[in-house]
Specification:
The structure is a single chain. The chain is an alpha/beta fold. The protein has one domain: Metal-dependent hydrolases (TIM Barrel, Alpha-Beta Barrel), CATH 3.20.20.140. Helices cover about 35% and strands about 10% of the residues. The chain contains 13 helices and twelve strands. A five-stranded parallel sheet has the order 6-7-8-9-10. The chain has a three-stranded parallel sheet with strand order 1-4-5. α10 links the parallel β8 and β9. α6 packs parallel to α7. The protein binds zinc ion. The site of zinc ion has 7 residues, from loops. Zinc ion binds next to loops.
Length: about 350
């Protein structure tokens, strides 16, 4: 057992910016409630040097950058421009949403979609990033699904126009108040089966379920609904970076999911450490802990995740060409990254020719 290795490794879920909460500058004594309150306004800085360091150490060839609260599409685009061979980025309309929060722009779904259209038209982004569908618009109470579905459908139309990938967040953290206190804008994080509606209405769009039902914690409560969605729709893919080894079994064995529909993506940069419970199943898993406090260090996602994937490959005797798909080949296809590869024909591909 060891770290999973592959021909061209792509982490499809990283955050290349890091939050600076600036407690001192804000004149606040650190506490959980203030953290939860302040997170949506927190600023982030370019953290690509640390990311590049980890990529080098673990042999990760490329990363797909995701937006998140406090992080900006503009900084992500700068990071991509500086390292076009290492990064592509998804966008989230972060500048528009910041203006909404500051009160200089009044939110409308039409305005937001215009902004997404503008961002995708620049050619600097390859899809709609984590949390975009949920919107990060402060609302007094979450919209009912029927109304949110209407809003999300308009965003999906923008993605359709640009033929780009859409990501759908699944699961919520159970850890410290900063994560739980976030207003996710709606219920789809807690109810991934709602993605059935999107996958059926937009069968031509690629939908990647962020975290594939396992954003953290030991509970598998979101796994089955997510697998149900992935098995039901050819256009739905699962991101697996926070899976512990055994979690790979069901999607790998399901003939309607399989290695072709799994993409490795960890959430690097999101500061979710691993919890260790020897003798428990799982013996380690991603989660935050109020008792530990907020991780000030750069949590090592690649190491844990690649170990779990390596273990899974061993347990299930996964052929290397299938492992290569999970680790990069599928992402190359979905995000159209063929020109980043050093050679053609690196990933599983068969010609169908008549037997006689
Ligand atoms: Zn993330």
């Amino acid at each position: 057992m060891g770290l999973a290795k592959g021909r061209f490794i792509i982490d499809t879920h990283v955050h290349a910016q890091r939050h600076a909460f600036k407690w001192k500058e804000r004149g606040i004594k650190p506490n959980w409630a203030k953290l939860a309150e302040g997170m949506p306004q927190v600023e982030a800085y370019d953290n690509s040097p640390r990311l590049l360091y980890d990529m080098e150490i673990y042999g990760v060839n490329m990363c797909v950058i995701m937006p998140a609260f406090g992080m900006t599409d503009e900084i992500d685009a700068e990071i991509v421009k500086a390292h076009p061979d290492k990064f592509v980025s998804l966008c989230g309309g972060t500048d528009y949403l910041k203006k909404v929060r500051e009160g200089t722009v009044k939110y409308s779904i039409e305005g937001f979609c215009e902004e997404l259209d503008r961002l995708l038209s620049t050619g600097l982004y390859v899809g709609l990033g984590e949390g975009t569908l949920a919107g990060r618009v402060p609302r007094e109470k979450p919209l009912p699904w029927a109304e949110r579905f209407e809003e999300i459908s308009q965003m999906m139309e923008v993605a359709r126009k640009h033929k780009v990938v859409v990501t759908y967040h699944t699961g919520t953290l159970s850890g410290y108040a900063g994560a739980r206190g976030l207003n996710t804008g709606g219920e789809e994080w807690r109810n991934p089966a709602l993605a059935h509606d999107l996958a059926s209405s937009f069968p031509d769009l690629t939908i990647i379920m962020c975290h594939g039902g396992m954003q953290g914690w030991w509970s598998e409560m979101y796994m089955d609904p997510v697998l149900h969605v992935a098995a039901a729709h050819p256009n739905v893919y699962l991101e697996t970076g926070l899976y512990w080894a055994e979690l790979y079994e069901k999607p790998l064995r399901d003939p309607n999911i399989g290695a072709e529909k799994l993409v490795w993506g960890t959430d690097w940069g999101a500061s979710i450490p691993q919890q260790w419970v020897p003798g428990f199943k799982p013996g380690s898993y991603a989660d935050q802990s109020r008792q530990q406090g907020i991780p000030a260090h750069q949590v090592d996602y690649f190491g844990w995740s690649l170990r779990q994937l390596g273990k899974a490959a061993d347990i299930f005797d996964l052929p290397q060409d299938d492992l290569n798909l999970i680790m990069g080949g599928n992402a190359v296809r979905l995000f159209k990254l063929e020109d980043k590869l050093p050679h053609t024909r690196l990933f599983k591909q068969y010609l169908n020719i008549p037997q006689t």
